[in-house]
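Batch job 17 of 40 flagged for manual review because the log was empty.
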Amino acid sequence: MATIQKRGNSYSIRVSCGYDTKGRQVIQSMTWKPEPTMTPRQVEKELNRQAVMFEEQCLKGYQSKAIKFEEFAEQWFEEYAKPNLRNTTYERMLQLRGRVYAAIGHLRMDKITPRQIQAFVNTLSKDGANERTGKPLAPKTIRHNLSLISDVFSYAVKVGVAADNPCSKVTLPKDTPKEKKIYTREEVERFLTLLNSEPLKYRVFFNLLIYSGFRRGELLGLEWKDIDWDNCVISVRRTSNYTPKKGIYTDTTKTKKSQRSMKFPKEVIDLLRTFKSEQYSEKERLGTKWQDHDRLFVKYDGRPMNNNTPYFWFNEFCKAHNFRFCDIHSLRHFYASALINEGVDAAAVSGALGHSVVSTTSNVYCHMLQEARAKVSEAVSNALDFNRNKDTKNSA
């Protein structure tokens, strides 16, 4: 039931809305001020009406604008983030809470200004922000921190707790993109040759990666039923991910457009046939100890392979063969660069990589696309070299 307290010329109406996740009582409050011309009887009648209306609003989920950022953010995690975000994104957001709450968690949602958020963002780009290295946080991590605050405010605007999103007026520190490490064609050819003497599952994994540009999680999420053996086509329908809380789990693809099908050379499909036969033999050998998940890439007993296993194996492989290590994702970049160098347009490259929009491809591979377009321009110039044609006619 609402409680009413007179404060000068106005009245404070407070309603108890239960307790939060930390056992603290949640109180919603509002202030009502009567018109100067109202009689005491009118004031009493209207005050009771306002109290009843406010209590009903609270029961329906009304949030006072006086709520503090930390309290509302925890509600956002439970009401929006948990049911709507991908598990990896959700857990990353959870890890950012400590730093964000320390900066603005104690402030009221309706009192937080762009300047306060800008000041917080600026501290992240200063020495010491990264407690482990003593250096500034990486630009990507700074963006993630601001995204958490912005997402909370967007939800607050939607439910009427905030009038606008102050993050829209915040400027991120300038990010100087690092040049991507990409293997050359000669390096990839040498890598494929060296792979021939390695365990079959890694030969298959890296051949698939090089010939498709699939993401690591997409490769680890592949199941035998995803292969169309007759047409040499493999379809991406899911991913295999990992979080400390959930362990290894199956998830949806990064975007709807990440669900795609790719055609592979016959040699790669033949390698897959041999790999399937080897896995079947191992399944027969282990008998009831084998856990059948239908995955291509598994542990010794059939359980899905850990997400970091290919990375650690590749790192050790590079050390053993004195081979330049650029991490696994660089082979996806090689795939993209190979398509671009062959004159494949940005839209087709985007589709092959599973990007949700072409602009993502254009931004990530801007330099490569510019070089490819320059080659096209040069080719056209050579074809339309009027001065050369004119000299040829004059000499004739």
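Reviewer: the log was empty due to a logging misconfiguration, but the result itself is present. The domain at 185-332 is CATH 1.10.443.10 (hpI Integrase; Chain A). Unflagging and moving on to job 18.
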